[in-house]
Amino acid sequence: PVQILTYLDGVVKVEETELKPRVGFLYPVVTHNISVFINATRERDSGQYICTVNVVDDATPMGRNVGVINLTVLVPPAVPACQLHGNPTVGANVTLSCSSKKGKPSPMYQWQRTDPTPQVFFPPAQDLARGTLRLTNLSLEMSGLYVCTAENRAGFEKCSIVLEV
């Protein structure tokens, strides 16, 4: 564990960590609870945080004045990359893929065709976790704009690809 914040004898001390410019006590320590804030959170701020309160002349056994919280910083998906795999000719099979390099938790992917006729896809043609859409026995009517949405609890991003059969 690395100590990041201390209140001792009326003095607040912020240790030299990457959190130093972004962390502090939410309220004046002597007047309120000991809530802490972290501004401009980053994925690497995720982890276990421990608050220890030591009061002079307190008869409480060691370890009783300890609070533990696990922090998970969510990360919205990065703009995904859309790709076409295969030769888009009449009667052929192709796979559209969609992949985002960032996202916590891992994004789920949803494909849909927007133009000329909106269409939504379901498994097994679409794999929501892998971001793939398999189109079989292509016809001219399957041409159009296909949009992939990468989404998790923190947000979403989209990419698109034009399929010309």
Automatic annotation (TrEMBL):
Q: Which organism is it from?
A: Piprites chloris (Wing-barred manakin)
- Which residues are in the Ig-like domain? 77-164
Major place of residence: membrane
Record carries keyword Transmembrane helix: yes
Q: Which Gene Ontology BP annotations are present?
A: homophilic cell adhesion via plasma membrane adhesion molecules
GO CC terms for this protein?
Answer: adherens junction; plasma membrane
A single Pfam family it belongs to is: Ig_3
Answer whether the UniProt record assigns the keyword Transmembrane helix to this protein: yes
- List locations, semicolon-separated: Membrane
Give the membrane topology: Single-pass type I membrane protein
Q: Which domain of life is it from?
A: Eukaryota
Q: Which GO terms describe its molecular function?
A: cell-cell adhesion mediator activity
User: Could you identify this protein by its name?
Assistant: ESAM protein
Which InterPro entries does the annotation name?
Answer: ESAM, Ig-like_dom, Ig-like_dom_sf, Ig-like_fold, Ig_sub, Ig_sub2
User: What keywords appear on the UniProt entry?
Assistant: Disulfide bond, Immunoglobulin domain, Membrane, Signal, Transmembrane, Transmembrane helix
